Each structure stands twice: as C-alpha cells, then as structure tokens.
Amino acid sequence: MNTTDLKITLAQYNVTIGDFDIIFQRVSDVMTLAERDGSDVVVFPELFLSGYPPLDRLEQESFLSKVALCLDKLKTLTEKTALIIGAPEKNKSGKGKALYNSALFLHEGKILHTARKGLIPNYDVFDEYRYFEPSDEFKVVEFKGHKIALTICEDLWDKSDALEYKIHPMEVLMQQNPDCIINIAASPFDYLKYQSRKNILIRKAEQTKLPLFYVNNMGAQAELIFDGGSMAISPKGEVCGQMRFFEEDCRTFSLNDIKSNMNPLKDIDIPAVEKIYQALVLGIRDYFSKTGFKKAVLGLSGGVDSALVAVLAAHALGSDNVQAIFLPTAYSSDESLNDARLLAEHLKMPFEIVSIESSFRNVLGTLQPVFKGMEEDITEENIQSRLRGMMLMAFSNKFGNILLNTSNKSEMATGYGTLYGDMCGSLSVIGDLYKTQVYELCRYINREEEIIPENILTKAPTAELKPGQKDSDSLPEYSLLDTVLFHYLEIGSTFETICGLPDVGQELAAKIVQMVDRNEFKRFQAPPVLRVSPKAFGMGRRFPLVGKM
Amino acid sequence: MNTTDLKITLAQYNVTIGDFDIIFQRVSDVMTLAERDGSDVVVFPELFLSGYPPLDRLEQESFLSKVALCLDKLKTLTEKTALIIGAPEKNKSGKGKALYNSALFLHEGKILHTARKGLIPNYDVFDEYRYFEPSDEFKVVEFKGHKIALTICEDLWDKSDALEYKIHPMEVLMQQNPDCIINIAASPFDYLKYQSRKNILIRKAEQTKLPLFYVNNMGAQAELIFDGGSMAISPKGEVCGQMRFFEEDCRTFSLNDIKSNMNPLKDIDIPAVEKIYQALVLGIRDYFSKTGFKKAVLGLSGGVDSALVAVLAAHALGSDNVQAIFLPTAYSSDESLNDARLLAEHLKMPFEIVSIESSFRNVLGTLQPVFKGMEEDITEENIQSRLRGMMLMAFSNKFGNILLNTSNKSEMATGYGTLYGDMCGSLSVIGDLYKTQVYELCRYINREEEIIPENILTKAPTAELKPGQKDSDSLPEYSLLDTVLFHYLEIGSTFETICGLPDVGQELAAKIVQMVDRNEFKRFQAPPVLRVSPKAFGMGRRFPLVGKM
Description:
The first copy, chain A, is of the alpha/beta class. Chain A contains 18 helices and 19 strands. Chain A is about 40% helix and about 15% strand.
C-alpha cells in the first residue's frame, strides 16, 4: 500500500445553473490557490459544471455545447494539480439515455478517468432517470500511486440505505483494493438529512476501512436548498473534517491525516429549528441573487406567518430591501395594525399602509347587480384576499421587487388560502413549515430579544376576512391538524394509523385527508416552495389533479 | 400452429383515477356482454385497474389495497371469458422499485399469467421509473391452444422507435413462437401521435408476421388526453379493425379474420385541426365530469382566444352551462363588445357585462399616494387584468362554476400575460395552441356557418389595456413568432438553426428565446394545460426556475 501523502482539496461553491463563466472562474480561482498550497487534487460536487439540477436544459444541444466548451477550458487548469468535477457526459454507445452523470478526473490537460453514476435517483424531488443512463462499470482510478474509489452520490450507498437498488457499485470497487474513497454529491437539505447522510458515510468508511472524502453541493436553486457540509471521515468512522453549512467553503485535507484518524471531531449537529432558519435565509437570498433581484415586498397582516417571513427576508436581503405593507379593511383590528407596525419598527423595515376597504366596497358594488339576493359567503372573503394580492403585485410591478408568499404548509395542505390572493408570490418562503413549526421558528428568533412582538405569538390566529373570524372556526386546532398532516404527508401513514392517533378518530382524520386531497388544484398553481422537510409540496410530491379520493 | 379461432374483445372505457367502484362496474358490464357473445378474452388498457396516470397515489398503501381488493372482485368475473387488464403489481423480490406495471391475464378466477413492462418510459410527460421496476423476463402466455405475446405499451417498440432502449422484449417473445400479439397501452394524444403509433404497430405486425391487437386508454386526466383508437392489425400490416377516437368503444375481433387480413381498411386519418378540436372538447368535458362540476365561467373579450374557448366549452358542457362575461374598461372598444355579444348570441350562451372601470379607477386612487410622480407602465395594465381575474373568480366562487383560462401557447411562451390576471383559471383550454393555430381552429369551426363572428378573425389582436394598444406593439408578428416558438419548443432546434429561418435573424431569435426562458416563473403558476402537441407546457417540459439563460 502506498504511504506517500495526498493532499485533497474539497470545494463547495454556490453557482447558478448554466452560469458557465462564473463556474469556470470559481474553479479557476480554487485551482490557483490549491496549486499554490501544493494540493494534489481539487474536488467539486456532482454536476458542478452545469449547476444542479439542470433539468430539461440537458436536452438542449446549445447547453451541452457550453458544458463541453467550459470543460475544455477547465482542462487547461490541470497541468499540475488535478481536478475532479461533476458534469453531464454524452453517452456515445448509442444505447440507453443520452447522458451519463459523471465525475471527470482531469490531469495534465486530459481526462485521466471518468466515473459514471450507477444508482440514478428517480423519486421524491429527483428525476435523474429522465436524462441519465445508469452505468454498470466501476473502476478505481490510479493517481500518484494511490487507488481512488471515485463515486457519485448514491453510488456510495448500499443495500441497507436503499432497498430498491439492484447493483452495488462500492462492492465492485472494493474488489479493486482502493486506498481511499472520494464521493461527489448534490444532496439537498432537509431538517433530517444531515444525520442520515453522515450515518451512511460513517458506516461506509467503517465497512471499507478506508478514508472517505465527501463533497456536497452548496446553494439554493428555487425549491431545492443544498447545505454543503462536506466531510472527511477516517477509516474508524469518525468525522475528522467538517466543512461549513449553508456557506461556501474550501478545505485541503491530508490523506494520511484522515487515514490515521487525526483530530476526530465531536458531533457538531445543531437543532433542526436553527438549520431550518439558515436554510430559509439562504433560499431567499439565492432566489433573489440568482434572478438578479434585490428587493422584496410582502403583506404584513399582524399575524405570525407574515411576521416570520419578514424576519427571514430582512436577514436574507437587508431590512432596507424589504417593503412591508399592511392592507386593512374594516375587519382589521387595531391590534393587527399595531403588531405589524411594531414588527416593522423592530426590523427597521419600510412600512406602508394601503387600505383596501374602499376598493373592496367598490368591487362589491360592481357585483351587487349580478349577486343580488345572494348571501355573503366565501366569495366576499376571497375578494379581500385577491385585492391584497393585486395591491402587492402592483408594488412588485411598479418598483421591480419580488412578492414573497407567506402561506404555511398547514394552509397549503388544507386549502385554507385564496388562489390569486394570499397564494400570490414568486417564492413561498414558509410553505414547507406547518403552523406549529412557524411558531417554533418565531420562538427561536426571539430567543434573546423580542424581535417578533410577543402578542403576535400569543393571540389566536385569524384571517380577519369577516367580523370575529378565527382560524379555529374552519380548521381543527393546529397542534392536532399538524400531527395528522405530518402523518399523512411525511410519514405516509395509513388511514387506520391516522385514526388511531391521540384525539384524532375517524371523522377528523377523514376530514383532514379529504381537505388535502381536494386541494391539489390550488397547490398546482402555488409558488415554488423552499423545501426544508423530507416531503415538501412541489416537485417532490405529484398527485393527480383529477381523481376519485 | 393452432387454427381454431379466438374471439378477442378490445375495450376502451373512460374512467377516473382511483374510482374503483366504477372501474369494477365497467369491466363487469363488458364481461357480461362479452360472455354472452362468446368472446374468449376481453382486453382493457394499461393500468386500467387504477386509472392512468395514478402518480404518487402508487406510493400510498391505502390506494394499493383498493387495487388489490378490486382485483379480487374482478377475478370472480372470469369463470368463462378471460380478462386481460393493466394494473400496478407489487414487486415482491425485495430488489428494485416497489411495483411492476403489469398486464394481468385472469381466467377461471385465477391469475393465469402476468406480463410485466420492461421498457419504462421516463421522458416528456412520463415518470414511470419513479414507481415501476423494469422487467427483464418476457414469456408468451398459452390460452386455449394459442400462444399470445402479451405486451405493455412501449415493450412492443423496437430499436428504430426508441434508440435509447437497451432491451427488446419482442425479440425475446418471438423466440417462443407466439401466434398473436396483444398490446395494452396508455398512449396520450397529440396531433402527430396517431400516425407514429400506427406506423409502429404496422411495422411490428409486418416484422413478426403476426396479427396484432392494440387497446389504448381513452379519456382525459387533467393535462393528458387519451384518444382511444384501439386497433387490430393483420400480419400483412393492414389495419383491419379501427375503434373510435375520443369515445368509449368495445369491439370483438376474430383472431382468424385478422390473421387472414379480412376487410382491411383505408387510411382513416383525419386532419390535425379536427383531432385537436375533438381532443379539447373531451379534455374540458372530462375535467368537469371527473371533478364533479357542471358549469363554467369565462371572460369574453371580443378577441379570438376567448371566442375559441367559448365555442369549445359550449360544445363540451352545453351552452347553458357556460357563463360568458364581458369586463370592459374605458379602453374597451364598442367593436369588442359587439363581437363578444354576437358570439354569445350565436352560441346561445348567457352573457353578462361587468365593467371594471370604476374599480380600476378606485384602485388607482388608492395607490396614487404611494405611486405619486411615477409614470404609468405595465403596472396599470396588470391591475386591469387582475381585476378581471378577480371578478371572474368571484363568479366562480359565488355560483360554484369553474373558471376556464383562455391563454394561448404563444402568450404562455413569451410571458405576454398577467399572473393572477388573464392567467387565472382551473384549466387552460388552449394553452397548447399557438396563436396561428387558434385562428386555424376558428376557421375550422366556421367551415360551414359563421359561429365565430368574422370580425373576430380579421381584426388585429389587442389586449385593450391602454389606448390604441395592439399585440404587435410588444410581440413580433404571430406567424413569425409561432415559427420560432415551434422550432425552439417542439423541434428543439439549435439557436443557429432558428437564426437561419426565413425573416428571423439573430436579433429576433435571441429576443424570442429570451422571452421564453425568462418567463419560466409565470408558467410555474399557470393552470394545467390540455396537451395536444408533442411538447406542451406543464409536466412534459421541466426547466429550472432560476438559471443563467
């Protein structure tokens, strides 16, 4: 076995899909530094060369040409230090899908080795089989006398991690006696992911008795948030290197240090609520920076949901860049106004009041002849919500800022929201947080000082769309509702299990499940939701719009 | 070779996903008739037992239990006549995806044979690899002395049809000397599909020198429209039996008749425009009937798009069930009102006028203090569009009818539409028709009498959101625009090819491509679009929301 050292640089950088100039520049900068520091090889994440996930851009020849051009330029950077980078690679066999999801090992201006992904995820938010042919050939790469098992994301997993896979790339690679493992990944964040990801890596290092270098994607691409957190793990299964979460980072490791279990770290995991907070801030910030916008607008109702979004947006974009608007009717209470205004003051956020009462009355007047003799119902409530959406979109159009949606997951699930009203917005910031989680996050924000006025957290939630209205008039208590929703959506519990939950029973279970099933049509037109849970609304959950429930 | 005859009944029926009582009833009714007529085997389409496509319902245990229960009941129907039906089947191997996409051959109360799909489509609108393990075992089934090659949809295809497939189920089956082929399918309609589908079937019959029985799914499931058109094809490659398009149908064929090329039919293909018309009518009708709604509402602007949607809706639902509303401002012309009113008269459709002028002025007044000193711009145009959307949604809420969206594909592509305004609606009826195709369809509708007032078809298109506005102020001429869009979206031509199209050039090509790419965020929140082309917006086209273009 080779005992000379190898210096391996892991690089997690935040790039935009298809932004090839920046992608090249980022790699080039890191290569320069790494070469200066005597690093042998720099490792970037899965599909870093295109950005992840490129989706149907992969079917566009012009996109693939740009990938090829960028790759040619990257080769020139590898005269001394080598480069491992994820990229879509054309499948020239004429059989199977058009591309491979590959890790390219570049050195001395050439491709020294290509590792192709064998386990192609096609579940939840992943659609990789739409584009990528699974490989069934797995070979270690020899570099400076070392044999490296270079793998891509799920190829490192084994039977116990994903029952469904039929092949086991690591078993094939182990027969070739590698002396270390490098894995490049694009593993999206959810609040449970870090532990499961780390457990997989640790078990694999222990099983193989090899040092393991893992580099993960970092940055948000609309719905998907990548948390970075790249790691180096010793053959004893201890984490000896842990890179930053939700931030760019670059670290050079000595193979021998990791092999000898140098400086193992204590478990550095942080509470879920803190991770979610950081993820959402990154999600907002990247959506804006990657679409070229700086400023946001949102409706501040005095309620807890918009309060939380305001705090997150202020952190992500700067308070000056977030315009808060309070849009009252006669049904709005002074309490709401005071709470909203106080929050804006705490955040030093521009605050406007735009009453929709006059427009509301005007619209009702216009509709009076056609609605003559009919009772008031949900129609009039929705008109208020839609007028608010319209006013907020007018701000968005006039000042060129982006409207942030403030719906939570409990509302999205049950359809307790108005299409084209409070469901407006380019980005749903907290659409993957149940109402109870919204409160948790607010409590976390207020842990040291009262940023969100305490009254917002203690009063009963209301939409204020008619006199004396409370959420609890239409919805079960949130603690109960959220428990049922969590079981139905996240765990996928059977109906019988849900009925058996404390205080639930058949009637309530049926009511809630039906609300979820019947509101698929609303969610179809909802904004993209920042995903922080293992099962978010959006691309990871696909139900028929039309069907017998 | 067996020369005794076999009577094969092909059954294409329109069911709702998960509507197990109706699914059972439909099969039961057909089995009763078929048994009376001495049919040997009845054949239903791919996944008929669940409805197609069931999507993530396939991940719900309760859904799969209902499939199993329904299957047990179906077995009891097969004492005499056999039944072939598509169904999701649990993969009990413990390896690979949880399900197979199977054709179950039921006879004498038992499962005589199970054929499992080997070629699992995962492109365009298909996500089957999300759920289904590909099979690599293909065996003919023996029934009454006949050897039947029972296959599911793409398993019948071969290399020349789909370069990408690595296995060829029909080659395996041919080694077992079948004497006929039965293929069950769920092949969604597009205006080019029938010819390509028929060509594949004909070539396969010719190659194998076998009679081929093909049964296709029928009915619309939100975006996807299945056109039926099941066929029996002789070993000479001639269509000897052709079942109805866009309608339920059931026909019994004699194996020997088809084998001997009895009564070959002339090519019965109809013009694309006629197919599209029928597809859209079915798409509307099924969306309503399967969601339990009867009545529609739509905004009639006096323009060609809403005129076409009104005609289609009237045909699908009955004129009485479609409420047309004209929503003028001061910018609306008498010409528009007259055109809209005349169309409603022609269609005998309820017609209301609801002016948004007063509400528009009121909203502008409300916003005046915050917009003080700023020029009028797109903001004020969007407010009109959103007020219209709000009024239409108020009708929808108050009267419990569904708002039909009237955007066309040229608008959807270029972002020439207002989110939460004219992009409102539960169903986009013509969102897969370019503006030029909208005119074509209108001309087809008017082929015998003037249903759509001629003036609607000859005047210049305008959104009437400011004085003297014409579409051509903001967009290239539609004939040119649509050509470019067709090349970019449908053909997937390279940018260079698009620049080289007559009268296009680099500047215009870049402008149009950029409009398409930049408006992904609007389409993300668009209603589901009835798909009639090979590349529609929606589930079949997935682009990053955030990316460098």
